[in-house]
Amino acid sequence: MATAxxxxxEAVTHPLLSTDHELYLxxxxxxxxxxxxxxxxxxxxxxESLDYEMIENDFCKQDxxxxxxxxxxxxxxxxxxxxxxxxxxxxxxxFFNNLAVENIAGVKFVxxxxxxxxxxxxxxxxxxxxxxxxxxxxxxxxTAYIAPAAAGSGIPEVKAYLNGVDAPGIFTLRTFVVKxxxxxxxxxxxxxxxxxxxxxxxxxxxxxLLGQGGSKRYGLTWRWLRFFKxxxxxxxxxxxxxxxxxxxxFRAPVGGVLFSLEEMASWxxxxxxxxxxxxxxxxxxxxxxxxxxxxxxxxxxxxxxGLIMYDVASEEITYHLSDVLPxxxxxxxxxxxxxxxxxxxxxxxxxxxLIHAKGPGYAILLACLISIFTSSLLFGxxxxxxxxxxxxxxxxxxxxxxxxxxxxxxxxxxxxxNDLASLIFNTNDDAIRNLFSHYTDSEFHRSSVFIFFITCxxxxxxxxxIVVPAGLFVPVIVTGASYGRFVGMLVGSHSNLNQxxxxxxxxxSLLGGSMRMTVSLCVILLxxxxxxxLLPLIMLVLLISKTVADAFNGNIYDLIMKLKGFPYLExxxxxxxxxxxxxxxxxxxxxxxxxxxxxxxxxxxxxxTRHNGFPVIDEPPLSETPxxxxxxxxxxxxxxxxxxxxxxxxxxxPANVSKQxxxxxxxxxxxxxxxxxxxIALTEEEMEMLIDLHPYTNAxxxxxxxxxxxxxxxxxxxxxxxxxxxxxxxxxxxxFLVLSRCLILLLCLDFM
Length: 752
Known about the structure:
Layout (H helix, E strand, L loop, with lengths): L8 H5 L22 H5 L7 E2 L8 H9 L2 H49 L3 H25 L9 H8 L2 E2 L6 H16 L7 H15 L20 H20 L2 H12 L5 H26 L28 H33 L3 H21 L7 E2 L26 E2 L1 H6 L3 H9 L9 H18 L9 H19 L7 H17 L3 H11 L5 H16 L5 H9 L28 E2 L1 E3 H10 L4 E6 L8 E7 H9 L41 H4 L2 E3 L10 E3 L4 H11 L3 E5 L8 E4 H10 L2
Parallel strand pairs: 5-7, 10-11
Antiparallel strand pairs: 1-2, 3-4, 6-9, 7-8, 11-12
């Protein structure tokens, strides 16, 4: 990897170490500091990338040659076994999350309803507010002080990881636990946040923790597990975990797989599709069995919330050409609203970042203030609605007291219900179910639905970004459903579609306008509503809303990734990149090692740079002319220093010095267990010794000629999953450069 380009002229022409084997760059006579492109890459990327490239040093090649059929079968068997374990664990966690939310929130609403029945309204408000405040305080405190990486949705973090960004702390055991506890507390505390995004992050955490290739600390050192000590297999398992998370959140197995394909994964292949589908199927089957247990009344207050589909299957849908116009209108409005929604979240997150920068105390205070404001709105707004008489042909008890239902009594006298309280003084899942319900066209008043839409729209914007685990899926669904139902009320008898179906289409339009997905969202909504007849209308709405919203800004997860500073590498190249070659964006001095290198030089370069890969070059007398032998990773060099694989004289380097290593030693270590050069203690005598780097060097790194366009290099980085690329000249005998993923990413970010 090239060092920072913004160095002075002398630094460009002289390497860090003044030795007799200086290596000059092809353009060492002139500094590239005047190049705008070179200045873009001035700062080395602070977030590390993942190594997806297969290392072909002597140990790894010997390991591949020695693998028999039994080991190959073990490897394949372990892949499927880990997918099965991910499915089982994520399904249990998803069920536990929903069970906890329904019971914790249910107790709150039962107590509050009892107070309302006793006409003790102020006491009811105090209980409701304090209950929410305590839950929010718990969620924000554990997140701010124990695992800040657990805040937010988690989908941007997982998406960045699957793109090759090794963001610190996103898959640790601490983050995993806080994500579960914080999500349950935040959703139960009536914050307008969802649990789908946190479930995706939770599923990815389960996959990452299982895919670490064992643990010496806990005695998990089986030979079978060593196969997974690499970023490629972990990436595939995390992809399966993200599919399992969506499946557990919505009980939508096919939608979960498509979500991973369309939104999450940067690399996909048929084998991964099979394993993702298998993982999602395991989740769906386990959830089905657990839900059957709860339907028998063995799960406390867990009733028809959370995991139960918003079933509109019994609805007979008939529509004509005249019904297409309102659907088109829904799509256009949804695209505009979705882009506005993304714009507002972007601005709110920027303000929240300034507050969070002052310390965790300020972040917790902000979350508590949002909780108090939310509780006041949820309890106060239903008083604006007038009580409505219970319909004589109501399909359920009216009014409903102390439980979920379409007819909340709130402050109304017997025989009446509060339609706004039925939506706003409820869990998000029950509110969605009420809006999606069919044959209830006269249940809600226009003003109540409009107030609910405005409340959800802005509360979801201000609630996302506080220091709690918070998803966006459910808030967008409930907001879109309210706006869709409102449009259905305005259309009235001019359409053959009832208001419940307009609510479904409204959710689709806002999801498409905000998240910019099409295929996966379409299938998720179909699996949620259990009605295939909605397919043409949902497809039309999603296509229109996405097209309209794309004209204004990007999708919500990309905006959040940019705000978080994740250097996401897009699949397409910017037009300006076709005017540049790879040699235009790398400059010196180049840091490299000889095939046989002095320990002191190695330690100095490792201490003064943060580069992850270094070229290994043979020069006379090892070769007649300078020859590129390969590329060696920083972690592998530190391993050699740690194991003291050096000798006082190159002629005395024993032939069996490499026998102290195996291919497993060069595998990727578990999360947060990387060795650092600062932790290596060496004596003055050892610093003068030599290391033979040849056996440990990847002898077949990806190399390109210096005339390759930057656009072509970016596509190669993205499609192959590279971290380093060696740039070689056309003219024989001239030295080499290293193009790093970090420079490509910095270029992309600067010109966005």
